[in-house]
Design a protein that fits this description.
The longest helix is centred in the N-terminal third of the chain and has 14 residues, at 42-55. The relative contact order is 0.14. With 317 residues, the chain is of the alpha/beta class. The protein has helices at 42-55, 63-66, 70-79, 124-136, 148-153, 166-171, 173-182, 214-217, 224-234, 240-252, 267-280, 286-295, 302-313; strands spanning 14-19, 61-62, 88-94, 98-101, 105-106, 159-163, 189-192, 263-264, 298-299.
Length: 317
């Protein structure tokens, strides 16, 4: 950890927006899985989805308690962080609910912007962006702020830290562009998103972060962004320039990323592997089987493998 220090520009609060998680602490009903909402048109699909969320008999729980997994364990710690006395306000970028505060009451659901999952928002980047913008027009579970643009523009004295996977940041990209247009000081907004490329517009906002940082902050790559945020806030670093400097120095001290030349595999090959291994070890988890698959020098992204595991077994990770 780096030594704690005072921020050069004291903030009223730090608003941290993190990616939601596919894992939930409670079972997800079949009716609240996006795969079951099959309308072709986004507005119709979204109306059906919102109706299901609103009319379900399932009892809600705070998002802070409902999400689960390593990524969320770290996010939950962020909500308790007080860098130099500055309160941290945690928000969630959710493919099911849109932008929500971590205390919002929500029900277990399955929807994601990540590709290759049975509950993915359809139609790629175009579909994801249309879905996010449409979600922002819904009041959500508690009403209030529903866009990143409004969150940034509503309080110029608060720092806003987007801690989003490249996929989720891409889904929110037009909203982020509108947020950038509203800020008076570029140092108000910072973005941690390993894998996101600087396309010019994000140059002043992206903090240094890539897979090399995993060596320093630990955990899996799926939790890399939120662990980088924890690294900074635990050291009471909330100023944009100081954040950029700290992460840049950390990256410079890390070894190069290991490269694996694994062979690509079709969906059929992955499912055949899962089927064969489960016949030998019926209790094997999807994460264990993915490690075995990769040990055989075969390539498959974690989200895609999890989706194929569900398709093959009907068991949700």
């Amino acid at each position: 950890m780096v030594a704690a220090r005072q921020t050069a520009r004291p903030a009223k609060r730090v608003r941290v927006i993190v990616t939601c998680t596919h894992r939930k602490s409670r079972p997800v009903p079949t009716s609240l899985r996006l795969r079951g909402v099959t309308s072709v048109r986004t507005p119709t699909r979204l109306r059906t989805w919102m109706t299901r969320l609103a009319e379900t008999s399932v009892s809600p729980a705070p998002a802070l308690d409902l999400y689960a997994g390593e990524h969320w364990d770290v996010a939950r710690r962020l909500a308790r962080t007080r860098p130099t006395g500055t309160p941290v306000e945690l928000w969630v970028c959710s493919a099911g609910y849109g932008l929500i505060p971590a205390a919002a009451p929500i029900v277990p659901y399955a929807a994601t912007f990540a590709a290759g999952n049975p509950d993915s928002v359809p139609d790629g980047t175009v579909g994801a962006r249309a879905w996010w913008d449409a979600l922002s027009e819904w009041a959500g579970p508690i009403g209030g702020t529903r866009t990143l643009s409004d969150l940034v523009g509503s309080d110029s004295k608060s720092r806003v830290l987007l801690v989003l996977s490249a996929t989720y940041l891409n889904a929110c990209r037009e909203d982020i562009s509108r947020a950038i247009a509203r800020i008076a000081d570029t140092k108000q907004l910072s973005i941690i998103s390993a894998g996101t490329k600087d396309d010019g517009e994000l140059k002043n906002f992206l903090l240094p972060c890539d897979a090399r940082m995993q060596t320093a902050v630990g955990g899996t790559r799926q939790a890399l962004n939120v662990r980088a945020a924890e690294y900074l806030l635990a050291a009471s670093i909330v100023d944009h320039d100081e954040m950029s400097e700290a992460l840049g120095k950390l990256l410079a001290d890390q070894p190069a990323i290991a490269r694996y030349e694994r062979l690509p595999a079709s969906d059929a090959e992955v499912r055949a592997f899962i089927h064969a291994r489960l016949r030998i070890n019926p209790g094997a988890t999807h994460s264990r089987l993915l490690r075995e698959f990769r040990d055989k020098n075969r390539a498959c992204e974690q989200v895609r493998f999890a989706g194929l595991f569900v398709a093959e077994t009907g068991v949700y990770p």
